[in-house]
Amino acid sequence: MKKSLLLSCILAIVFIAAFPGQSVTADDHNRTVTIWTFATNREDDIRQIQGEIESRFAVHIEIKLIPQYNFIDSLTRAMRFGKDTPDIIDWMIENNRMLSANPDNSYVMPLNQFVNRSAGVHAVPQGRMDWCTYGDYVYGIPGDVHPVVLVYNDTLWKEAGVDLETIETWDQFFEAAKKLISKKKNGKPIHYALPYGNNGLQTSMFMIWQQTGTQILDPYGNPDFTNPDFALFVKKWREWVKSGVFCDWDWGQFGNMLESGIMAAYPAPDWWVSRVDDAAKNSSYKFKVRPLPVYRAGGSRTASWGGTFMAIPKTVDNPVLMFQIMEYIQFNRENERNFYLDTGILPVDTTVYNDPVFDRPDARFGGIKLGRLQCDLALGLPAIKTGDIFWDAINDFTEQYHLLEAGTLTVEECLENTQKEAMKRIKNQSFY
């Protein structure tokens, strides 16, 4: 820890020198730095090093847990009236309502000048930084990576004559899945290959889509749902769905479906791997874990789903100090290691990946080193173009996808309608 503190002091001196117009002054000492977060595990994570932060930066840290359902509304009111505003926010990476490709419309400030000189941020996989980047601006530091692996019931697949370790592509996977679902009762499969809710770019489709390399926004943030590559993926996806290999993604019954054998595999970000725990402990099935099959040869073997990022509201008077504190939180080696041990969530800082903690055999999967697999996959996250309308446009696609599923639209009509709805968002765009 002493070496870590010394390194932090050296980095702080270099950092301040790089920004002569902005520095940490005596006025910043003993000030209260308020951090808002919506997640209890993130609150616990920060509290673990609260004393270190306060000692290192000579400040008092106040952590407020703000309910997720009114986090943005609370931030809006605080900033609008200039009262009780936070200095740092820790928020959901999949919510774009406070970010904009136009900095004037963003509730948090661009961090480009900081991140370009940050050794810590340079250790974050670029595929993860994409989720905090709108247009030319980086708005936050991710708090996690959430690489996705495939957890599967090796017993059931091998009983169906399939060794999933030999499967390379999703096309091969879904072809093999036909063998898995051939065993039926009352005309319905006893086992299913994957969960999915037939709800557009959600759950399994969201993760596999990332592997395709296709984008739903162009480099300028405009919707691009009718591009040929995305259309081809949707058509292929619909073929996979019609083959009958999917069961419903049931959040409440997920563990039971694994334990009973109804669901024989699922794509799992690190925070969802633990859903197999009861099945691995209580059932006679043997489970394994591997990278995702690729969409095409040479493509990404993983995806990412969920997560948090830290950002600085535009009302903050000294962003240099706040950025230093965010760095200390996000890139604290000992804290990251302990957080992984407690939660199974992989740190965002790739310099930590050489720690032996990631080489522990995982008894749930026959001794496979899950942590090492996740570290390797995190380095190859797919690149995703996000932007102002990204998440809303996904919802637009979901609405049209329901009509596609009902048989009232063709794939082409579904995508054309989605494109039109998303374009309306561009034309009528307003911030809050």
What topology does this entry show?
Layout: H1 2-18, E1 32-37, H2 40-48, H3 50-57, E2 60-65, H4 71-81, E3 88-92, H5 112-115, H6 119-122, H7 126-129, E4 133-134, E5 137-138, E6 141-142, E7 148-153, H8 154-159, H9 170-180, E8 184-185, E9 188-189, E10 194-195, H10 203-212, H11 228-242, E11 246-247, H12 254-260, E12 265-269, H13 277-282, E13 287-291, E14 308-311, H14 319-330, H15 333-343, H16 370-378, H17 390-406, H18 411-427
Parallel strand pairs: 1-2, 1-3, 10-11
Antiparallel strand pairs: 3-14, 4-5, 6-14, 7-12, 7-13, 8-9
Helix pairs in contact: 17-18
Helix content: 40-55%
Work out the helix count: 18
Q: How large, in whole angstroms, is the Cα Rg?
A: 23 Å
CATH superfamily of the largest domain: Periplasmic binding protein-like II
Number of extended strands:
14
Name the structural class: alpha/beta
Form type:
globular
The CATH topology of the largest domain corresponds to D-Maltodextrin-Binding Protein, domain 2
Largest sheet data: 5 strands, mixed
Q: Identify the strand order in the major beta sheet.
A: 2-1-3-14-6
Query: How many domains would you count in the coordinates?
Result: 2
The amount of beta strand, in percent, is 5-15%
Cα end-to-end separation: 44 Å
